[in-house]
Each structure stands twice: as C-alpha cells, then as structure tokens.
C-alpha cells in the first residue's frame, strides 16, 4: 500500500500502520528510513519478547511491507524538533547497533522520538496504559457491585 499524505522530508517521523500496532522510523532521504527492529527488518514487535533489537537503515517500501505509511510528526506540538541534518546524522550513527528493547519504555517509537526531539515518547504505550487502567477500574467496579449484591442477598436469607 502507498504513502498516505505528504511526501517525507529528511528527519520526519514515519509511522507504519500495522494491523495491531504502529512501527516507527526516521526518514533519512533517498527512500530510506532508520528504525529499531528485529533482525529481519520487518518490525519491532517480535523484539518485545527477546529484549534486544537492532538499528537498521532500510528502504521505506521494505519496511512498509505492503502497509500504509505516513509522515507523523505529531510531537512537534509538544517539542521543537532538532534540525533535519542533526536528526539524520544521529540516526545514521545508530545503524548497526544492538539496543535493549522494552515495549513500555524503549520501543521503536521511543527510539525515533529521542532522535528527533531529544526525549523518547510513545502514545501507543501511554494509550495502552490508559486503556488497561480503565479496564482494571471497570472490573473493580463490577466486582464491588457484585460483592454488595451478594452481601445483600446473604443478609436477606438470615
């Protein structure tokens, strides 16, 4: 599938829309992205279980692997990005390095936002935490209602 939206410029964050999650890279020009991935270059999801990932420079089409991708510099509203040349140079210096991978604090989105802004961010992780917290609170509320109902039922019997 094709690029959705404007063409990337060096230093842009590229979001690859996967069926279950988004993969992220930094556009470095010439149709290439630098990204934190597993050894095959496809994604970072399988790295979540291995604890390490590698930084690769691959063609944007190879990384997309048929998925839609787009420029998504969404954190520009929060932080000023570094100059494009600095972002690209920093990204290319990371190529070939093996990195620790933690889905909650050191994933592919954290990696690219660190290069672009100097701090790692991941809305995917923040949103997942929010949904998980909401789900836990919802289950706790249901359990509390069930407990109260059970106690009332038990009290009526005696």
Search tags:
158 residues; alpha+beta; 6-stranded antiparallel beta sheet; 5 helices; 41% helix
- Distance between the first and last residues' Cα: 67 Å
| Element pattern in H and E | EEEHEHEHEHH
Uncertain runs with pLDDT below 50, 5 residues or more?
A: 126-137, 147-155
Shape: globular
Query: Which class of secondary structure composition applies to the elements?
Result: alpha+beta
Query: What oligomerization state is this entry in?
Result: single chain
Q: Kindly state the percentage of residues in helix.
A: 40-55%
> Strand sequence of the main sheet, in spatial order?
5-1-2-3-4-6
Mean pLDDT: 80
Your description of this structure?
With 158 residues, the chain is α+β, with helices and mostly antiparallel strands. 41% of the residues lie in helices and 21% in strands. Strands 5-1-2-3-4-6 form a 6-stranded antiparallel sheet. Strand 1 and strand 2 (22-29) form a beta hairpin. The model is unreliable at 126-137 and 147-155 (pLDDT under 50).
Show the helix and strand layout.
Layout: E1 13-17, E2 22-29, E3 32-37, H1 47-50, E4 52-59, H2 60-64, E5 69-71, H3 84-94, E6 98-100, H4 108-117, H5 123-157
Question: Can you give me a brief rundown of this structure?
Answer:
By secondary structure, the protein is of the alpha+beta class.
